[in-house]
Predict the 3D structure of the following.
Amino acid sequence: MNAPTPALVARPERLRLVGQRRQVLAVMQQRLMFAMIVYAGIIALIVLRILWLAAFGDHAGRKQGITTLVPERGDIVDRDGHPLARTIDAWTISLHPKKVIGSKLELARTLARLMPEKDAATYFALLRSDKPFFYLRRRAPPALVQAVNAIGEPGLAIDREPDRLYPQTSLAAHVVGFTDIDGRGNAGAERAFEDRLSDPARRGEPLVLSISSRVQQALENELNAAVTEFSAIGAAGIIMDIHTGEVLAMTSLPQLNPNVAGAGSPEARFNRATLGVYELGSTFKPFTVAMAMDAGVVKSFGQMYPCPDQLHAYGQTVNDTHPFGRACSVAEIMKESSNIGTAQIADKLGRERQKAFLKKMGFLDPIAIELKEKGRTLTPGNRWGPFETMTVGFGHAVAVTPLHLASGYATLFNGGIFRPATILKVDRNHPVAKGRRVFSEETSYKMRALLRLVVTEGTGKKADAPGYRVGGKTGTAEKLVGGHYATNVVVTSFAGVFPMDEPRYVMVVMLDEPKPTADTYGFRTAGWNVAPVVSKTISRIAPMLGVRPDKRREPNMAEVLPFVREDD
Amino acid sequence: MSAHGFKSVFMAASVAGAALGCYLISLNVASERAKLEDVEEKIVLAQRDIRVLQTEIGTRGRLAQLERWNARFIRLSAPSADQFVEGGFQLASMVRPDKRPAIEAPVVLAAAPASEALGRPVVTSDAADAPPPGVAKRGDAADMLRTASYARPEPLAEQKPSKPAAPVTAKPAKSATADPLAPLPSAAASAKGGASNPLSAKSKDRSTAR
């Protein structure tokens, strides 16, 4: 650094000192530099972070709350968009005993006054317990919430919790189903579409059912009136669109209120329409005739069969309630619901063909529908011999759900194509299910007149709704009680289709154990108790469904009328 | 030290100023965004309230409740098949035409006393009188048909011999005569109180509709 002077030829100690100093300086510089870099880095980091936050970051007042209204669980609506199930925020009142600061005894008395479902002693016990948390009331009304809030006790917490509400209460309860306390689907559509309803991506959109509230209400009301009138233990009713398989209304009685599903009896929670299987009796006969026509066994409704007072076959006896005692045509067999005649037709048809048809109609499998509550059909199984073929022909020894029956009638009258039933509305997002042909179109067409005959002249006269061309078949089946058929315990049913000249809707109604009344002259058969329900319901719903009443239109009755003897 | 020495200071100041400006803008944007979010949240809360209220109204006015009210108070029932009409034509045919304007009445009233006497015999007018020349060829057969059931008309009837010109066809006499004589009964009726006026108008209407 300095000019070299002889004086500067320092002593070695001094030189060493200088060297040391330099070294120290260098180290210090290094350290300083390092510290500076560190500080600069930190400052740079902070500055960058600030800039980043300024440019892209959240501001201080940003709410972390809701920005879109997505319910905790998807809504369920009917085909017209009326809500059947909704999740709303309900008030809950809860108790944190540890946080209570006031007089516990006083508080217990106040609570007992406000919420009298528990007495003061119980509240006091709760207040003194060691547990941290109790629900005092879920789904509390606003007035109570206000009153509890006015107490001003920090130990009483008032919160909002999502709660499943069924605004129409018991309407379509068995289709909609209900949820448990944690909001998970436990029955019906709530259970069948659990994933769809709780999926955050899809629950914003409501689940649209095929149910029509107004049709459902008409059916439930009329059926409930019948259950009361005939003191039946239960009932089921189904209305279906025969072309799409959409279930417009489905009910099972006794009623269930899904808002308090736990309070309902097991009987009420049981879905008779899809889970219960019943021997539905004579309502099966049209299937037998249609099968026989399709198979070529019956060539015309004028084909005659001997109809004695009793038919002895395969070591057993078949009886009729109104025996002909003469030869009768197929039209007459159906009109008077003759077991003997139908048994002979079924016998000619044979077991294999009968089984094949039933299989194609889905009668041997659990019902095809989205609901998880499906009953297992009962058939003769291994004992399906020639006599069983006969009894199955008139609806005995085979037990299916009412929905099977509705589905079968839909198949029979929509041109012969089986389509699985659905509880979802058929639209762009949910096209009509693929069908499979069971009956020929001609058979389907001819059966119209035959079933219209049953209503105009036969056992189902009371089911007629003037102008709506109802056709259908009554069925009265004795119930199996303790292994024997009880004569005075019956299941009555009616399966009807309207309007018969251009079938659009099928309606199946079933009463479980109806009792005779004075109005029915002591009868308990289907023609007296179920048929009027059909008539009243169709008169109510048909205008809603766009079916015009017209007294001048009828199906082609020339198919059957020539084969019915006028004066019996 | 010259301006050159302050250059870095100016640089730093301008950079700081620019940064501050940027920051102010971003702050402004952020506060606008916050306001927007407040509005959005209010909308959502309002929607939630609407939902709750809708649900409440829906629950109070549920179909089962409406049905109960209907059964107890309103008592509406399903329409029967006869309550449906085919279309506008059938609907129109159910409605009576309005009365004629009263302005015609005074004109007819002048003839009222005369029509009192003529009122009854109107029916008999197309009796076995000589048929009018215009319809002579059909008149023979028609003549024979009517005379059988007929009381010989009073000379009174002969006052209007040419009236039956229209009714010569086999139509019932009443409706046929109603047409040409329309003013007369209406005049009589309006004198009495006008009860039969719409009737005659209606029958006339029908005959034209055919």
Notes: Chain B touches chain A through 32 residues (CB under 8 Å).
